[in-house]
What does this fold into?
Amino acid sequence: VQLVESGGGLVQAGGSLRLSCAASVNIFRFNSMGWYRQAPGKQRELVADITRGGSTTYADSVKGRFTISKDNARNTVYLQMNSLKPEDTAVYYCKADPFGSPGIWGQGTQVTVSS
It folds into this structure.
């Protein structure tokens, strides 16, 4: 199973980006999928996740600005990021959680927000 993230880049504060995570298998097999991020010198943290049934969870720091969604037909999960702030700068990782198996991580995509 492979997860490939894309859509990162450099954006000014207040701007938007949409991240994509394409899976090499049918994502319906996963209990949930999520986006995490890790800034330099900090621990990796959950940004948002979405369950097989479509329920979503967000970190308090991104509520109202970020939206996670998925397209089962395209085996892809998205993270729409609006009103970006410099503190959102990090490497963003996609993670898939299969039923009863360890999580699977993507390689990450860099998001840099300039002030």
